[in-house]
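Thread title: Can someone regenerate the structure for this chain?

I was given the following input by a collaborator and told the matching structure tokens would be attached. They weren't. Posting the sequence so someone can regenerate them.
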Amino acid sequence: MIHSTLRNPPVTVTPAMSPPAAVNPLALQSALHDMNNLLLIMSTYTALAVDKLSVDSSAYRDMRQAKEAVSQAALLAHEIRIALK
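Best answer:
Regenerated them for you:
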């Protein structure tokens, strides 16, 4: 674990710093669509890498973990899309 020696000053919220207005659901849908496209590409390349690597290699284990992370991200994107409906 990395510990920073820098200290963050306390933040005071002023009216000018109020939270942004609600995000446009269509913009979120579009962003999720783009994210799913990227996840599909990542999934394809990790699957290709896994197929070409030796099961005994550390790279194989790393690619399997990357493939699992991509699958979890895709599931999360799907859950967000359902929540937006």
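The chain has one domain: 23-84.
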